Amino acid sequence: MNVTLDEKPSTTPTLFRSLQTFFTNPQARAVGLVFTTESLSLGGWVAHIPHVKEKLHLTDAGLGMVLFAMPVGLLLMNPLTGWIIARLGAARTCFLSALVLCFSTLLPINAPNVAIMVMGLFVVGLSAALLNVAMNTSAADVEREHKILIMSSCHGMWSLGGMVGSLLAGILIAVHVSPSIHMLAVTIALLLLTVALRPILATIPAQPPTESSAAFVKPNMLLLLMIFIGLAVAMGEGAALDWSAVYLHESTGASSQIAALGFGCFSLAMTIGRFMGDAIIPRFGAKRILSVGSLVAASGLLLAILVPVPLVVLAGFALLGAGCSLIAPILYTASMRVPGIPAATGLATFATFSFIGFLAGPPIIGFVAEAYGLTYGLGLVVVVLLLSAFISRKVNV
């Protein structure tokens, strides 16, 4: 039986018009740059995971255990996000959580031991969880105020930040700039950007807070199915974020410079797809895109597993990015329109569980990799994505 979500009426803008709307609206641009801030911080960190893994002499399972500090931070923070946003406002929460995230990424990259690395990743998880909900809420507030579609473009800005961060890391690794100096420079630049964006973010009209919007809700069947799809895609994104460089370096023999491009190729494909999303989602339908996207993502990762050659693996991660690109924007928007659940509560609940896939997926891959090899760890993600494609056919969004 299909589970149906009533869809709000929408127009079908052209690609040019949707991009023009996004980039010419100051509030939309500001929120999009907040998305970029998060991914630049995370993208800079993940490009140096192989360096930290070697420096601290971590095994695959050891790295997986350490990386679990981020989802632990997320689990503790996400049930509180609705309460925090209801009292501070989404725009102010964006500003404060972005500041904390910028500083917190300096801890794991400079960690002299595992304990400091765990503490740093825990704080990264706390701040990233709060920022994730706040910036998506701000994007929805801008859409509501101006009656425009910008959610996919905002997620495109996230992917753009990840791509730029990965490419920059690859260049700096090639010229032997230390990871510590790289992350310090990124942090300073993002802090300046965040401060510059604060006045514009403050002008975004927020939806009046309600007592229910601050609560964490038990998901109904529709939200549960959406959460599973979100978990699957988030695991694919997490695999590219945390394991693409390690897989390229250790399983294909790629140099550190080439290995750093894995997440860059993933992000490039995802960026292109998401900037097209606000035009093509209304045209082709969200349900079809969810199903086809999951299949494309699974096919790309399977290609990377079956043909462990650097160029082919890069192409596989690009397909993974293309397939995943529009699923998160569709589900984030849909989670705020679940019948019987307040918008902010639906978003916070969906974000909690889907972000678990993003952060907890990589450690799970690490455990499987330690026992059977990294190929099997990534293969688990392929299976989950295929299940997501099947479930997508049962949900009308």
From TrEMBL:
<dbReference type="InterPro" id="IPR020846">
    <property type="entry name" value="MFS_dom"/>
</dbReference>
<dbReference type="InterPro" id="IPR011701">
    <property type="entry name" value="MFS"/>
</dbReference>
<feature type="transmembrane region" description="Helical">
    <location>
        <begin position="289"/>
        <end position="307"/>
    </location>
</feature>
<keyword id="KW-1133">Transmembrane helix</keyword>
<feature type="transmembrane region" description="Helical">
    <location>
        <begin position="89"/>
        <end position="109"/>
    </location>
</feature>
<keyword id="KW-0472">Membrane</keyword>
<feature type="transmembrane region" description="Helical">
    <location>
        <begin position="61"/>
        <end position="77"/>
    </location>
</feature>
<feature type="transmembrane region" description="Helical">
    <location>
        <begin position="115"/>
        <end position="135"/>
    </location>
</feature>
<feature type="transmembrane region" description="Helical">
    <location>
        <begin position="258"/>
        <end position="277"/>
    </location>
</feature>
<feature type="transmembrane region" description="Helical">
    <location>
        <begin position="156"/>
        <end position="175"/>
    </location>
</feature>
<feature type="transmembrane region" description="Helical">
    <location>
        <begin position="222"/>
        <end position="246"/>
    </location>
</feature>
<dbReference type="GO" id="GO:0016020">
    <property type="term" value="C:membrane"/>
</dbReference>
<dbReference type="InterPro" id="IPR036259">
    <property type="entry name" value="MFS_trans_sf"/>
</dbReference>
<feature type="transmembrane region" description="Helical">
    <location>
        <begin position="181"/>
        <end position="201"/>
    </location>
</feature>
<feature type="transmembrane region" description="Helical">
    <location>
        <begin position="344"/>
        <end position="365"/>
    </location>
</feature>
<feature type="transmembrane region" description="Helical">
    <location>
        <begin position="313"/>
        <end position="332"/>
    </location>
</feature>
<protein>
    <submittedName>
        <fullName>MFS transporter</fullName>
    </submittedName>
</protein>
<keyword id="KW-0812">Transmembrane</keyword>
<feature type="transmembrane region" description="Helical">
    <location>
        <begin position="371"/>
        <end position="391"/>
    </location>
</feature>
<dbReference type="Pfam" id="PF07690">
    <property type="entry name" value="MFS_1"/>
</dbReference>
<dbReference type="InterPro" id="IPR051788">
    <property type="entry name" value="MFS_Transporter"/>
</dbReference>
<feature type="domain" description="Major facilitator superfamily (MFS) profile">
    <location>
        <begin position="27"/>
        <end position="397"/>
    </location>
</feature>
<dbReference type="GO" id="GO:0022857">
    <property type="term" value="F:transmembrane transporter activity"/>
</dbReference>
